[in-house]
User: Which sequence fits this backbone?
């Protein structure tokens, strides 16, 4: 049942890494108990602590296949994609290409002008902190293919904002898709190309992309009733909110990059990405932000949870797509981070998964 990656693949892929028996034991025990308790088909869990890292897989990537997930298993991480979109924006802000407070309107692309409310225009910072007032999802438009340019244009031009930009928070996939469109227009290249050059290549995430996985080592997702879900082909206009595939090994690299507090390379980008740009205090409404832990502030796509009890400050994001739930969290001041994914839509398990990871971080890096 154990997949011991610390001494093999992780060590080979990340020369600075080392295997630590205590880290292995804590992570393996956490993953094994959670897998047995929930009964999900498969689970992969990865952790970073200082210079050490480990990956464990349990169960099967596909029912009946007998293949355990491992550090190279491709996983659709859903809304964890938003942290990469936020990082694209952070990179462009760091080099002066954009300002976080730039209005989005001139760059939206699919519509001549974005809606306003109470005289406030939507800014880039509003999109990336879920404070734009845009809805969670597009409303279906008769005779128009969903997620097409025409679908976005109709939604953005005909529907009023839920609240004035910056005055509240409501989780919005639409907002992040619009953000990716705007960054693509500003950068003068397709969004996948922009993300690759500004983020993926710089962090050496060679197994992370929007391409649908080919080959046998890919996590198959299942719905609430245990039926296999077809992820379908990538949808261009949904690349800001979701759509990335990655591996536990790449997520170890991603966690290491995010935990490099005093590294010189990309220091400005990292600082912009992690900063608490919008505090919860005084916002109205606040919707859809607390499923994985109480949101105290928003970074660029990241949920920031302030220290409480034995738990340190944690920066986190959850994702769910096509029968796969995933969660990534790290304590930037403690050098500890965890990634986990399961391959069945089970909302109680997804909520428990985040709590278990947050608790594991607290155990590995107590205040």
Assistant:
């Amino acid at each position: 049942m154990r997949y011991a990656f610390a001494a093999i693949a992780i060590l080979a892929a990340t020369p600075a890494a080392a295997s630590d028996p205590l880290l292995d034991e804590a992570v393996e025990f956490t993953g094994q108990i959670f897998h047995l308790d929930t009964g999900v088909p498969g689970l992969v869990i990865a952790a970073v602590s200082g210079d050490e890292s480990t990956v464990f897989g349990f169960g099967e990537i596909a029912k009946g296949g007998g293949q355990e997930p491992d550090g190279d298993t491709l996983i659709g991480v859903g809304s964890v994609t938003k942290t990469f979109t936020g990082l694209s924006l952070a990179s462009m802000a760091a080099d002066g290409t954009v300002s976080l407070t730039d209005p989005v309107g001139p760059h939206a692309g699919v519509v001549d002008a974005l809606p306003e409310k109470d005289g406030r225009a939507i800014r880039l910072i509003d999109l990336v902190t879920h404070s734009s007032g845009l809805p969670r999802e597009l409303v279906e438009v008769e005779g128009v293919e969903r997620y097409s340019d025409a679908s976005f244009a109709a939604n953005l031009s005909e529907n009023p904002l839920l609240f004035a930009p910056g005055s509240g928070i409501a989780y919005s996939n639409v907002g992040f898709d619009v953000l990716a469109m705007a960054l693509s227009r500003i950068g003068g290249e397709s969004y996948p190309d922009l993300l690759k050059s500004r983020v993926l290549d710089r962090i050496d995430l060679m197994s992370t992309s929007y391409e649908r996985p080919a080959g046998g080592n890919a996590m198959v997702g299942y719905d609430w009733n245990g039926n296999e879900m077809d992820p379908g082909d990538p949808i261009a206009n949904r690349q800001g909110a979701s759509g990335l595939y990655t591996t536990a090994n790449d997520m170890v690299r991603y966690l290491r990059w995010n935990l490099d507090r005093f590294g010189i390379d990309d220091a400005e980008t990292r600082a912009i990405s992690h900063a608490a740009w919008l505090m919860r205090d005084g916002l109205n409404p606040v919707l859809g932000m607390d499923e994985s832990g109480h949101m105290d502030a928003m970074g660029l796509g990241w949920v920031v949870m302030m220290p409480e009890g034995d738990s340190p400050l944690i920066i986190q994001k959850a994702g769910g797509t096509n029968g796969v739930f995933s969660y990534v969290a790290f304590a930037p001041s403690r050098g500890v981070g965890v990634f986990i994914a399961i391959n069945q839509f089970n909302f109680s398990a997804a909520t428990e998964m985040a709590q278990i990871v947050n608790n594991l971080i607290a155990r590995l890096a107590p205040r």
About this structure: The domain at 77-210+231-239+268-326 is CATH 3.40.710.10 (Beta-lactamase). The mean pLDDT is 93. The chain is about 30% helix and 15% strand. Residues 189 and 352 are 40 Å apart (CA to CA).
